[in-house]
Amino acid sequence: MLHLAGRLVLHGPNFWWDLIFYNAVVFGAGVFAWLGSDRADVDRLGARALSLAIFIWGIGSSIATWSIFRGFERVSTYGDIGYVLYYPLALLGIARLLRRASRLKFSEILDALIVGLGVGAVGAALALRPLMSSIFASSTSLTFTGLLYPIADLVLFAYVAAAIKASGRHLSPRTAWLASGMVLFAITDGLFLYQSSMSSYTFGTWLDSGWLLGFAALGESVWHPSAEIEEVSESSIAQGLALASGMAILTASAIWPALFPTYALIPASATLVAAFIRMGLSLREARRLSEEELLARTDELTGLANRRLFVADLSSAVTLWSSGKSFGAVMIIDLDGFKEVNDSLGHLAGDALLRGVAGRLNAKMPRDSLLARLGGDEFGVIMRSPRIVEDSDELARQLRESLLTPFQVSGVKIRVDASIGIAYAPHHGEDASILLRRADIAMYRAKRGHLGVSVWDESADEISPDRAGLAEELSQGMRRSELVLYYQPIVSLIDDRVEAVEALMRWQHPRLGILNPEHFLPLAERIGLLHDITISALTQGLQAISGWSQAGVDTSIAVNISARDLIRIDFLDSIEAALESSGVDASSLILEITEDVLLVDPGAATRVINQLAKMRVRIAIDDFGTGFSSLSYLQQLPVHPLKLDRSFVAHLFDAGNAGVRASAVAKAVIDLAKSLGLACIAEGVEGEMALLQLRELGCTSAQGRFVAPPMAALECREWLSAHQAITTP
């Protein structure tokens, strides 16, 4: 404004006013931009590049002003060097400043160039033709600069316009100031070009104020915030029009060479080059998006579909199944024993096992079925079939059979099994989430009952609450001490004395009542609470028998230990701490492990068991005969009692060959224990006939409801006291 006022007062050009005041405003805008580069929301390099561009333009302006007033026309062209160098630096500065605000991509820069060059081509071919004929009649430098400045202004403005488009057409304050500066430059350079072509431009007039206002806007832009903006989809209308214009000019020039001037072909050709580069970027971007979409729907480890694709496919299938025109099934497959492999051999071995399992399962998939890894060691199957019951049963059988052959992982042969839950559609639900939940419930029933395969039914739902809700309740229940121990006595069949009590965890659920371990321990293992429950059982159990001992009732306690607990680095420390805090002698503690524990990491398990023996802690083999037995460990390891699994005891009196075989197996286990000098405890003794039969077979001890049911701590102490009084001579 001061510059315009000065022009009115001075009535024309003035050397000192134009040289000092005019360029002082330009340099002041550069300083202003430089000072704003230290702001937290400003890209420092961008702000300083823009500042440097303004400084260089000011130097060029000072040279041009001095040379024109002194009559050195040739020297004045050196000022054009500063003007020309301004544009690449300004482009760098604007690009950096807008990149943070609008996340401008290189593809959007090309869009801006295509539009800018297309407009330049049309302008050069039509509107600027009479002006260019006048300019080309003058010096070569004027021809060059006359073409360069308006085209460069259009490119810069198109770049800012592309940033506005990329920001969802949300004009932040910084972008508005930059756009204003570019508009002022484009208008001023356009008027300068027109006046120059008409030989009417006079240095030091009101027109020169347009550049000052433009620089003021650029300097101001650095001091204003940029909004956080989301990207939007691209619009190709402007690009298409620009590209069509460029092609039309080139095609028409090829047919009628004299129709358009040569200088119009330069931006038209550049438009096509930029468009071809943009097309290549678009193809690469489309391929990248396709690959990203595939990755987003594929499990990276196994190459199977992931949970996202599984749920999407199931939702689509349920729509068809609900109409009754087709039938389907959802299967949830959970590997048995995988966590022990993962913990003992490491995650790399676990990953290798998962890849092997995925390959075998996938080889059994029928057409139009989908196998997905849902997470961890859990897989899902969507099956479509008109004979869904028969076909799903057959597929489940094939899937489990495919896992029978041991896997070779890290030089170790590993056996895994699978528990499979099935829900039929639309019979068991017409919603994807309901079918998933019910298949999950069926899988858990298969796992805890060692059934292999289980189909959902309403009775399963009554004892298996929604797992997601139950998981949170279990965590809270741990904190509220809702998990308590019940105790079941183990009685000698020789002299009827109590040898020990087994600690059995119960969950006193505030809504569902008392839940047995099979209803929550598998879930505790999945959410990482199993070790905490084990330590709680150890602590509660040892504290209980410590209190009983002070009341005159002495006994030992047996606590179940998982493979994951046994091979933990801090397991022995936890045992020592629990014994020390309770004051119970280590010989009164029995840890029950299954023989499958020894298959996970035999070396680590052997070391820990030997250390426990040195501490005088006893080791019992639970559920003997149901796992992958290897009799060699009975000779090598310091285990004491064998526990005959309840499944053999339950069938002792079955009719026909079943009862004969069960009795033979029970006798074989009892004789084996006797020959090795080990005690044998029969589990699940539910009646007098079973007790008498086991005593006749030579079994040394028994445990079951006929002997004594699981009891709370106080009730068990009273029972032990009464039984001790009866059996003590």
TrEMBL record:
Entry keywords, A to Z: Membrane, Transmembrane, Transmembrane helix
MF GO annotations: cyclic-guanylate-specific phosphodiesterase activity
Coiled coil residues, start to end: none
Chain segments annotated as transmembrane: 20-37, 49-69, 81-98, 110-132, 144-164, 176-194, 262-281
CDD domains in UniProt: EAL, GGDEF
Xref: InterPro entries: Cyclic-di-GMP_PDE-like, EAL_dom, EAL_sf, GGDEF_dom, Nucleotide_cyclase, Rev_trsase/Diguanyl_cyclase
Keyword Transmembrane belongs to the record: yes
Gene3D superfamilies found in the cross-reference section: 3.30.70.270, EAL domain (3.20.20.450)
Residue ranges of every copy of the GGDEF domain listed in the record: 326-458
SUPFAM superfamilies the UniProt entry points to: EAL domain-like, Nucleotide cyclase
Domain EAL per the UniProt entry, residue ranges: 467-724
UniProt-recorded name of the protein: Phytochrome-like protein cph2
Organism, scientific name: mine drainage metagenome
